[in-house]
Amino acid sequence: MTVSMEWAEKYRPGTLADVVGHKKPIEQLREWAEQWVHGMPEKRAVILQGQAGIGKTSSAHALARDFGWEAIELNASDQRTAGVIEKVAGSASRMRTLTGVTGKRLVILDEADNLHGNSDRGGSRAIINVIKNTNQPIVLIANDLYGISSSLRSLCLEIKFNSIQTRSMVPALKEIARKEGIMCGIGVIEKIAENADGDFRSAVNDLQAVAMGRSEINIEDISTAERDNKESIFKVVGKVFKGKSVRSALEASYSLDETPEDFIHWIDENLPHQYSGKDEEAITSDIVDAYSYISKADRFLGRVRRRQNYRMWRYASTLMTGGTVVSKSKLRGGFVRYQSPSLWRRMGQIRSKRNMRDNIAAKVGSHCNESMKYSRMGLTPIYASLLDDDDYAVDVVATLDLNVDELVQLKGSKKVTKKIQKIYDAAQQLRPEIVPGIEFSGRPVEKAPKKRPDQLSLDSIKSPETKTESKAEVEIASGEKPVSAPGPGDRTVASGKDAPAKKQIQKKPQKTLFDF
Ligand SMILES: Nc1ncnc2c1ncn2[C@@H]1O[C@H](COP(=O)(O)OP(=O)(O)OP(=O)(O)O)[C@@H](O)[C@H]1O
């Protein structure tokens, strides 16, 4: 097994045919390159846009190789001043390539959504000028189009790279494992691909990490690797709180698989737990000092979000880790069980509660032909109060098609109580059948006659006799013999045979709120 070289580099696709997924964008890229072969395309530059690690840069290099072009890559760490860009892709480059061979040169500008910093001074303007005049193909690579000016965008053909689907990654990962002589147990590759969330580079990195020192990988090894990653965050947090070397804390934080956006929450959550003891005054002062650095780091994170300039993450990291390290008046050891950020849990809870509240309001709104916003404010509380009456409650749940969690929330309860479960079960039997192709609006168009709450209540599902009474009620109300007995099973679309029964039931005077 070779571990000396990164597999992601080793298995970088050599030609466009080796690129995993991206059928359509690769086709677009090829067509654009063909136009260069036969002359000059309308757009002399393309922007390959998509999340990191999905093969944009590799595709650009593979394109150059397939077409026999020299590739020159300028990434954000290069000095992308107007002069440099002009030199590489401007008028001089029209004569011949760097190697002296006359032919096309593919200029690849990585991180094109990041052309703001000092080193890129004039970069954006220079690229615009170069694109207008060049006779060399130019590829811009960007995670996000928002960081690129509209005047630059208008000169480029935009090609979107989507994240790679798990099922496309699996055969490619299996092939890498085979070439590396690694045996993989059932589901191993699928799990790695799933965890990567569309990012093929991280899938390859994960495969390499878990294969290190093994010739066989089983599914349990993957869970261990996931746990190792979690352990490493605890180690880094420990280094920040307990160590005195800014450098080693910073280096440890860079090795993490967490962004500064996430890491700051770990520090924020655990700082007060780590700094505890009897010397209250010193502790308070250390905590205040550390938080003053953390808040400055947070300001940088805000700037990164607003300007999409990820270079400033560096300052944020230095402030939050280095700042916390230097703000200790003395070293504090002691074991502390670090917690994952509670803010995430709270946000998750709030978000899911809010989503549920909106779902309920949308269902009420749909039933009453009102907007979700209006029903959230005005109507939902009314429906909530109807739940106090068990019979209405069953009808409300069935009519609005509430699920059990929504019922719990609308009832203002904290959990599924026995009563709530009973209401829900009763509603399941009353629930109208949804006619395919017709969206449920609380009033399905064609369905078997819906039983009224007075026909099916909590009690009525308890004893079969009560159901018989209900049949009798229909008979009395219609003055005719009922065609079929309404029971839990008869929630099908009304057939011609059922039609008379439906007609009779519609004649019945309104008895409940939902009888319209
Ligand atoms: N679609 C893909 N097909 C084959 N290999 C891929 C693909 N996507 C990523 N890889 C692997 O991941 C590595 C990184 O890919 P690449 O640099 O092309 O991604 P990117 O989208 O340009 O990411 P970034 O925006 O971070 O530069 C490659 O060396 C390759 O091993």
Automatic annotation (TrEMBL):
Keywords: ATP-binding, DNA replication, Nucleotide-binding. Residues 42-174 form the AAA+ ATPase domain. ATP binds at residues 50-57. Residues 444-454, 462-474 have a biased composition (Basic and acidic residues). Pfam families: AAA. GO terms for biological process: DNA replication. SUPFAM superfamilies: P-loop containing nucleoside triphosphate hydrolases (SSF52540). Residues 443-516 are annotated as: Disordered. GO terms for molecular function: ATP binding; ATP hydrolysis activity; DNA clamp loader activity. InterPro entries: AAA+_ATPase (IPR003593), ATPase_AAA_core (IPR003959), P-loop_NTPase (IPR027417), Rep_factor-C_lsu (IPR023935), RFC_lid (IPR047854). Part of the RFC clamp loader complex which loads the PCNA sliding clamp onto DNA. Heteromultimer composed of small subunits (RfcS) and large subunits (RfcL). NCBIfam families: PRK04195.1-4 (NF003228), PRK04195.1-5 (NF003229), PRK04195.2-1 (NF003231). Belongs to the activator 1 small subunits family. RfcL subfamily. HAMAP family: RfcL (MF_01508). This is Replication factor C large subunit. The lineage of its organism: Archaea, Methanobacteriati, Methanobacteriota, Stenosarchaea group, Methanomicrobia.
